[in-house]
Amino acid sequence: MLQYRDLKNALSELEIKRSDPVIVHASSSLIPQVKGGAQTLLGAILASADNILMPSFTLKTMIIPEVGPEDNLLEYGSGRVENLSASIFTLDLPADFEDQVISELFRHYPDVIRSNHPIFSFLGLGLDAALASQTTAEPYGHIQYLQGKNTKILLADKEPSALFSLHFCEKDSGRKQFVRWAMTENGIIECPFFPGCSNGFHKILFHLGNEVKQTQMQDHTWFAFSLDFLIQTTLQLLHEDPYALLCNDLHCEKCNLTRRDIRQRRR
Ligand SMILES: [Zn+2]
What we know:
The chain is of the alpha+beta class. About 30% of the residues lie in helices and about 20% in strands. The protein has a 7-stranded mixed β-sheet with strand order 4-5-2-1-6-10-9. Strands 3-7-8 form a 3-stranded antiparallel β-sheet, with no helix packed on it. Strand 1, helix 2 and strand 2 form a beta-alpha-beta unit. The N and C termini lie far apart (about 55 Å). The structure holds zinc ion. Zinc ion binds next to helix 9.
């Protein structure tokens, strides 16, 4: 079993500094391996960094409308039954994504606040201005806000596919974006700049090279790196190779549509 001390040591090996803002992606699969579970894991993270952001995604707010733009990989009108069970986003709606356990624990921690993106909300401690920068119209506003501020990203037993910050780079580089819709207290709203597929994001580790700090926790690797370096490296890469970071699954509809979009733009 991993102890509190092991987690603290790992975070210190990853050079997570108390004063640096940290975007935390922590896997729920870690919890059974830690003595004291999610409480201990969150405790170690909070003891290592003062200012934290963590996803609190609510995918159950999404609905499929009857009509919408083309090339959006949605079968319009197919959600008539499922739409009825969609949740209305409020700041109190529990997260429902794969890492909800630790995210929900963090949400109830004192002074934690939440951004109001109905699908991709983030929780934050000490980063209110960053959270206020994320809106439905600017889903990556908080990532943009945290540039130039020594922000670190922590992947605690998470694959690079969890890197929401890479979706910001995709948008910034002009890569194709999607549109989705979500239920809010103000009715159904359009959520622009919905990201594409992230299954090829592990390819970024090679490009980050020695700037990636890593440590082994039992049979899992934890990674940490600078947000600025990630953004700079990714934008450069996407500029040189617009097909970079797409996945290798020949049947991936999102990546294939993105490739087609790049080819059309190049003509
Ligand atoms: Zn893909």
